[in-house]
Amino acid sequence: MTTIKGKRILLGLSGGIAAYKAAELTRLLKQAGAEVRVVMTAAACRFITPVTLQALSGKQVHSDLWDASVPSNMAHIELSRGCDAIVIAPASADFLAKLAQGLCDDLLSALCLARECPLLVAPAMNLQMWANPATQRNVKQLHADGVAILGPASGDQACGEVGMGRMLEAQELLEEIEAFFQPKLLAGKRVLITAGPTFEPIDTVRGITNTSSGKMGYAVARAARDAGATVTLVSGPTALAAPRGLERVDVSSAQEMYDAVMVRVAKADVFIGVAAVADYRPKKAMRHKLKKGTDEMTLELQPNPDILGTVAARRKAPFCVGFAAETENLEAFAEAKRRRKKVPLLAANLAQHAFGADDNQLILFDDQGRHELPRAPKIELARALVGHIARLLPKK
Ligand code: C5P
Q: Which of 192, 200, 277, 319 for a ligand 1 pocket mutation test, highest count of atoms within 8 Å of Cβ?
């Protein structure tokens, strides 16, 4: 179950080439279990036809303020009643200006003015239009009015220019909308997270690593950010894109991860060690590629610093959360690890279930005992973990 399952979303399209992304967004919202009703401005209908949106949403698309098919003939009021949110994607410069002024001369702007639910807008325009002081003034006003601004992003634009003003991608918008509906359980908290594997060089082209994909750590980072925390993600080498709106620090070896954590930990309220840190590293990394021979070769290893253990042992330690991946005796090993590392909370999983997969299953161990989180997508487990952390955090 995702957080927007069952939510009623009114998706509004104003005129912009990014309207094509709204088709994909409609599909993703529906796939996530939301009920989507689409309203388009006349200009939006020039970029993409209502037929496309009707087919994807499964509902009649409206664009006329005087739509006689709406029973009360008050489409501008009726269509948004009972909605959990209105999302405008794309929101053109013109539409933002209208919203900021409270103008309502077409169906979509009238719906926004008459709404009872939250309003989220995803700006989409040429970089100069975005940078124009008039647009910036309007965005500031909308922000002050409690409207959530999603994006925009920077990059290639349809006009051939490159810069700020591109609408977020459909998947990013879906994640922003999901984040909007999350309770802000960690508002004001600073959360430091390690994720991914580490890589311990043997020579210039080889090294020791493990099979961690980083998915669980990245999901925890996203869940903490969605819960309102300021998040720093110290990540070993992974193929994953960092969730938007957090600081990502890329590292490679365990020692680099240790150093990156230690310079940031004093400011953290919560530390979550999700990284699968290599326990050992080659004693001496060769500065050239080792040549193949026929003799046996011995690699001398030395232990890496224990990042979680060191953080937990600090005099003013943040609230520390450990992860444990075991292949057998999960419960006994995990609880023993929690006590040894002196952390108040430890999340344990079976390595063979977790590595690389999108789903996982966790057992949380704390002073009260064990709490089972049944098999679910990693982002859902991460949200449950964040909820558990919020309950255990000392109240100030
Ligand atoms: O002892 P083990 O490696 O199984 O402990 C796992 C937990 O400790 C994880 O939270 C992991 O991120 C953390 N850890 C660490 N530094 C290490 C080894 C593990 O922070 N060198």
A: 277
